[in-house]
Amino acid sequence: MNLVIFTFGYKSFSELSQHQTPLALTFLLTVLLRYSEANSNCRVPKLVSAKELGERKIIELILDSLEQMPNMPLPFGDDASAVDLGADKLAVINMDMLVGKTDVPKTMSIWQAARKAVIMNISDLAAKGAQPLALLASIGAPPDMTKTDIQQIGRGLNAGAREYNAYILGGDTNEASDLIISCMALGVCSKHQLLRRSGAKPGDYVAVTGSFGKTASGLKILMNGLSAPEDNGTLVDSVLMPKARIKEGLALSQSSLATASIDSSDGLAWSLHEISQASNVGFLIDELPVAPEAERFAEIHGFDPVELALYGGEEYELLVTIKPSLWQEAKTAVETVDGKLIKVGHATEKKKLLLQTDEKTVSIDARGWEHFKTA
After folding, report:
1. Is 47 a member of any domain?
2. Coil, helix or strand at residue 111
């Protein structure tokens, strides 16, 4: 039997005897310490920090404490949540938070940061095939933030929303020690058009809406002072001005062409693992979509382009699975709205995630961006 013993910091009877302690408390502590010394199974509980837990474990602990709403159209853990409105309509809701210290590079303007806070949310709606309608924004502002800064937040929020035909309806403000912009986005879609993470089947093609590795390269330029003369502008712009693939998501959902979908902002590798877990399939990736700009950057500075593409994050591309018989139709549907759909591999019955190159086949690790754990 494990018994928790609290001894007020005293580790032994001899240590207790060296301090002046009221008689009653001395007696109580003596009993507890003698029992503790005689029972090796007695232990003092260890407090686990948020850093040790990591973002995903924190989410899991909170979700375990919640009572789940009956008949949820999307389960806990998907890109967004949904509520049945009746008449074949769903309200798709998402919330994401931007924090200055962890999400805003020093060279990113306040306007760009506010716009990014909107894009983060719109991208999750895109992954579910929902048309964005409106957003609410809660803003935590440091006391020394200027009037101009606050105006730039408002303009950035508005620019991000209007870029995707949505509106900011209001929100809340408060004082904070760091810049915080937390948005809640609302979108709508038909029940039968909702894209989940859980529909992939063995044999389905895996596809993405763009190449990977640019944002990881751009962050190294911004944070570490590196450069890529030919591609500096493109790589930095991928960080400062991200884009949500809403047109592509709507094209695939409205034509019912994707079997599963996820936003890739936590990294391509982690997104593959998320769909693998939700759909109970594995993946063989045989055409990794490394951006040419990332390849050139990696060659200049001695980085691994595969590492940049798989584990960087912040791309905001969509990762989808599609039945082989519908591949050409899906590709055409996305191209019709001026998007791209790039086939990168296929789903497998064996639940392993593998990357196949000309030289070898290696496992794809379950890692990517994670608050508290990612340096």
Report:
1. no
2. helix
